[in-house]
Amino acid sequence: MRKQIMKSTLTLCALAASFIALPSVASQVDFPHIVTTGYGQIEATPDMAEFSVRVVQSQLNADQAKEGVDSVVDTFLAKLASAGVSKEDIKSSNLYLTPQYQYPDKGQPELVGYRASRTVTVQVMDIERLNDYLDSALASGINQVDNIRLKVKDESQYQAKARTAAIQDAQKKAQSLAQGFEQKLGKVWQITYKQPQNQPVVMRSMMMDSQPESNSYQDSVITIRDRVDVVYKLSN
């Protein structure tokens, strides 16, 4: 009886293994083929930007900290509105308020004040105005720049060019390999594509106690990349 149970168990395990292996076997290519990966990239000059600034204040009580931060943010938002920045291009975060403690060598921690902060993110459709908006932030009392992202407005057209370059790269590689191994390149059997996430140019964060690097973004370029994986059939 024990042997029959063991035999039955082994049979079930073998069947289970065969079912698990079926999808991988079905996905295997069982004919002569070449697998190539094409890469393409296009460089673009940034024509828009997005920056995030923050005001941070420490006061003796929570109300003073809140009022001080809100006043700075309201002033900055008013300056942006007067400069013609659309409300849709501005995002202002809620107040972030934390108590500040002093920790003596002996005894309990002592509350010494409150630290308040708010962040404003602005999308700049005309990159030539970027320095003006940063100057307005400084004049309003903003004391920290979290980051500055340089971007392009019509990224899709650059992505399409990079994709075309990737396709051409894959084709050239396949033709070269087939010719080198004295094979005839057949039709495309499979194309695998997953659009990469291009990262905008990000300037380093900085405190607003000094003037930002006003002209450093003008020499920046954005690289738009793409790739494609292709399986070609081969014939003698």
UniProtKB/TrEMBL annotation:
This is Oxidative stress defense protein. The lineage of its organism: Bacteria, Pseudomonadati, Pseudomonadota, Gammaproteobacteria, Vibrionales. Keywords: Signal. GO terms for biological process: DNA damage response. The keyword Glycosyltransferase does not apply. Residues 1-26 form the signal peptide. Pfam families: SIMPL (PF04402). It comes from Vibrio qingdaonensis.
